[in-house]
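Lecture notes, part 5. Sequence design as translation. It can be helpful to think of inverse folding as translation between two languages: the language of shapes and the language of residues. The source text, in structure tokens, appears below.
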């Protein structure tokens, strides 16, 4: 009987690490992926996406987790309606054919219990490529307004849009795009 009890206890402890990962849902009201791109060398143009969804799992103590984010490409916002329509069209995002871009990662980097990076696959315009994101700010705690445990981060990376088949006006309009993901996620 004591052997059985010890075996059950050991099995419970071994399964604890699987159960220790916390699951979070992206807060679409506080998550706005954005970008910067050179416009003819004269200025830096910016835009953001207003519709993001997804899930994050974190086990900071074990240094593990995953990210699965989907961004509605038609939700692009630049402050200029005519430009937004052009960016939704076939020359750029082709939102009718490719309504979502996704980032999926199961390789997160931690320093202690602080998330500092994510390596994953970005799928955009029908192409999937590996992308590294540096996490410049990471914080988890009780959200004083929602009264729910929340994690937030600012992630930054750079991609070449031509690698995703979006090469209209390259090199006049920059090929290199700086990507920012300001994200908040609420614990399930």
């Amino acid at each position: 009987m004591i052997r059985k009890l010890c075996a059950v206890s050991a099995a419970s402890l071994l399964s604890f690490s699987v159960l220790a990962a916390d699951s979070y849902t992206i807060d679409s009201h506080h998550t706005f992926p954005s970008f910067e791109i050179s416009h003819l060398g004269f200025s830096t143009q910016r835009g953001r996406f207003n519709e993001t969804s997804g899930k994050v799992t974190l086990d900071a103590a074990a240094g593990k987790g995953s990210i699965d984010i989907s961004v509605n490409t038609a939700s692009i916002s630049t402050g200029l309606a005519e430009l937004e329509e052009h960016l939704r069209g076939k020359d750029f995002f082709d939102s009718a054919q490719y309504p979502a871009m996704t980032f999926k990662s199961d390789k997160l980097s931690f320093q202690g219990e602080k998330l500092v990076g994510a390596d994953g696959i970005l799928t955009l315009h029908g192409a999937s490529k590996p992308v590294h994101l540096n996490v410049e700010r990471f914080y988890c705690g009780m959200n004083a307004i929602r009264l729910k445990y929340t994690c937030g981060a600012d992630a930054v990376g750079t991609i070449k849009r031509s690698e995703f088949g979006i090469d209209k006006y390259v090199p006049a309009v920059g090929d290199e795009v700086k990507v920012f993901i300001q994200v908040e996620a609420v614990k399930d």
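The translated text above is only one of many valid answers, since several sequences can fold into similar shapes. The two ends are 38 Å apart (CA to CA).
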